[in-house]
Amino acid sequence: MKELFLTLTMLPLCLLVKSQNVNLTIPLPETSIKAAYLGSLYYPGFKFGIERPYQITQIDKTNNRGTKSKLKVRYLTANLGYYHHATFHDNFYLLIERQKRCQNGNGWFSEVAPGVGFSRTFLGGATYAANSNGEVSKKIFAGNNYAMLSASCGGGYNFAVKKDTPLMIYGKVSLLGIFPSNSFVYLRPTVEVGVGWSLSNFLKANPILKIKKK
Amino acid sequence: MKNTLVLLALILFLGGCAKENNDLVPNANETIYVKNKGASMRVNIRGNIASKVVMLVVHGGPGGAAYFYRTQATEERLEPQYAVAYWDQRVAGASQGNGTKGSVVMKQYSDDLKVVIQSLRYKYGEDLQVFLMGHSWGGMICAGFMTEGNNQDLVSGWISADAVHNWARNDSLSRAKLLDFGTSQIAQGKNTAKWQEIIDYCASNSGAITPEISAQLNVYSYDALNLIDGFTPFNEDDVIRQNLISEKIPYTNAFLNLANPATRNLVNSLQSVEFSSKLYLVTKPVLALSGNYDFVVPEGGAIELVNRVNASVKERKLFMNSGHNLEEQADYVDAFIKFMDENK
């Protein structure tokens, strides 16, 4: 009974998705894995992540020359990032982003992504501390834990749109904020250049589809 | 595999416990961190640590950075002879972490200084000779440290360079110097509009000094440095610009520390902090240096310091063409070296 109820409820939605899928002029975004060089201008790092679309809106704009389509895609992304700033700290962080991407029919896209996460730093030098008797000891793996907020924007090119290759290249700038740092906040601008690869049947996405006509 | 992990853990553990005393080189460049009450404070050790003599920089601010003090003169004259430890105080420079609640207070800074010295002695040996060099606000930290318990036994001497030890009194000295110097400049027809603004402010705020008046006097004191013919104030920003990459300066951290609200609260609490009444406790050698054009920390403070300490060796020197930031760099550095030569 329960299964029947579910099937009846989902059937119209599946039909709707199917019918919209037929009309999509740009290939449906899939779950992708991403790898990037993450630099803070001079200091190197990396970022690995996964992005999964959960809502797609196709916007069709019609004028005298025909119809132009673009996709507005919302993703949830999970990322592991790291940078090395010698004599300052090494920072490993886990970041969850809610990413908005605008995919044009020519393959180019732009995106913005606010995020929240957790950061663990390791201090950039041997670390010492003294107890109340003044006895000093060396601390191993000394560092600090922080909460993290981030905001980023960028753009790239998605080869899947024109050439059916599940690859994209992208670049973006981010501002990472870790807190509470020194009873305040520490801000770090970063630059990211990377590639994304969609793997068929890997965490297959089932996003909500919408079509808007203008 | 299990054995390898156990061995690795043992090596790390023993490495952590071992007493260090093996980094005594003539050209050190090592960064360490000192953790205390939540803060992770950067200390960069440069120069001839093999000499077993180190000048510990206690920088200005609050919220400044030790990066400003590694100038060409320090690098070329001082570091080949002795080591210099550039310490970023909590909420300053490259220091990080998150201090426990209420830790950005005057007393904590002196406690931090003690732990920094203990850590240096742990690392380089208990026979390491440490000379404090407090500049500006750093003088408050040094004075707090030197007048507390047996702390001074940990150091060989105290250099006070354009440094404060009595916040409220310094504000009064600052106001008096601005009034005096400004009046003479107006009489000579030099920068009359700006000087008039300054002396009007000082004259109309002649009573008790609130934190707001103190802050404005500080602004005018720096403005005044740019009003003197033939005098160019030392530009700290140039040091940062030139060394941004080579010194791996985390500029956003340093900038945010400078603008940190906790630092502002600390400054506002300093009106009631003075060490004049405790200076008699100081018996270690003292060198007090001042700049003739220093409106931020006028010479009066150095005069009082030398008069009040009980040290058998106490000297004072006035640099005639300096303001607040050790403008006659080579001469200041030579004075540091001479003092350490004579008192090590």
Word description of this protein:
The complex is a heterodimer of chains A (about 210) and B (about 350). Chain A is mainly beta and about 210 residues long. Chain A has helices at about 1-25, 160; strands at about 30-40, 45-65, 65-85, 90-105, 110-125, 125-130, 135-140, 145-160, 165-180, 185-200, 210-214. Chain A has two helices and eleven strands; from the N terminus they run H-E-E-E-E-E-E-E-E-H-E-E-E. The two termini of chain A are about 40 Å apart. Chain B is about 45% helix and about 15% strand. In chain B, strands 1, 2, 3, 4, 5, 6, 7, 8 and 9 form a nine-stranded mixed beta sheet that branches. In chain B, strand 8 (about 285-290), helix 11 (about 300-310) and strand 9 (about 315-320) form a beta-alpha-beta unit. At the A-B interface, strand 6, strand 7, strand 8 and strand 10 of A face helix 1, strand 1, strand 2, strand 5 and helix 3 of B. Strand 6 of chain A pairs parallel with strand 1 of chain B, so a sheet runs across the interface.
Characteristic key phrases:
heterodimer; A: 214 residues; mainly beta; two-stranded antiparallel sheet; 65% strand; elongated; B: 344 residues; alpha/beta; 9-stranded mixed beta sheet; 9 strands
Instruction: Estimate the global geometry of chain A from the Cα principal axes.
Output: elongated
Report the strand count of chain A: 11
Number of strands of chain B: 9
Strand fraction of chain A equals over 45%
Radius of gyration of chain B: 21 Å
Mean pLDDT of chain A: 87
Q: Could you state the order of secondary-structure elements of chain A as H and E?
A: HEEEEEEEEHEEE
Number of helices of chain B: 12
Choose one word for the global shape of chain B: globular
- Approximate strand percentage of chain B: 15-25%
In short, what is this structure?
The complex is a heterodimer of chains A (214) and B (344). Chain A has helices at residues 2-23, 159-162; strands spanning 32-39, 45-63, 66-85, 89-104, 108-123, 126-130, 136-139, 143-158, 167-181, 184-198, 208-213.
